[in-house]
Amino acid sequence: MNIPENLKYTNEHEWIRVEGETAYVGITDFAQNELGEIVFVEVETVGETLAAGAVFGTVEAVKTVSDLNMPVSGEVLEFNENLNDHPEVVNQDPYGEGWMIKISVPNPAELDALLDAEGYKAII
Predict the structure, then answer these.
(1) pLDDT-derived band at 38, boundaries 50, 70, 90
(2) C-alpha dist (Å) from residue 97 to 65, 72, 114
(3) Closest C-alpha among 43, 34, 31, 121 to residue 82
(4) What does the alpha-carbon distance between residue 76 and residue 67 come to, in Å, rounded to a whole number?
(5) Backbone angles phi, psi at 34, to 5 degrees
(6) What's the confidence (pLDDT) of residue 25?
């Protein structure tokens, strides 16, 4: 199981990687493995400001559909359009090319409430 040390994690299996005042968000290696083959990622919240924990989209696998939750509050700036044609990238590279959204991070202190790699390992 791949759990990079440089990311923060939610109890709902999302990860966040902060780069300056913005951040990339996706689902963890554990989550993509549990879901199975991902066939569709839907995000209709670009341009919206959402609270931490709010649903920003859904991920559809062969056997289920799951909500995607914001790890921290912020504006959804961008959706990874590559996932429209290649949703399987989330299975192949969940922490790299399989990122789902790019968000603003107006309150970096919210990151302190998230799990580090060791904390995430403890819940899975």
Answers:
(1) very high
(2) 21, 21, 22
(3) 43
(4) 15
(5) -65, -40
(6) 98
* Pairing, β 38-42 against β 101-104: unpaired
Q: Which residues contact 9 (CB under 8 A, 6 or more apart)?
A: 3, 15, 16, 28, 71, 114, 115, 116, 117, 119, 120
- According to CATH, what is the number of the domain 8-117? 2.40.50.100
Phi/psi at 102 (5° precision): -115, 130
Note the Cα 48 to chain centre separation in Å: 16
Q: What length is written for the chain? A: 124
Contacts of 68 (CB under 8 A, 6+ apart): 14, 27, 43, 55, 56, 57, 58, 59, 100
Instruction: Say what the pTM is.
Output: 0.97
Beta bridge partners of 74: 50
pLDDT of residue 1: 86
Cβ neighbours around 33 below 10 Å, total: 13
Beta carbons of 2 and 9 less than 8 angstroms apart: no
pLDDT digits (tens, 9 = 90+) for 87-104: 999 999 999 999 999 999
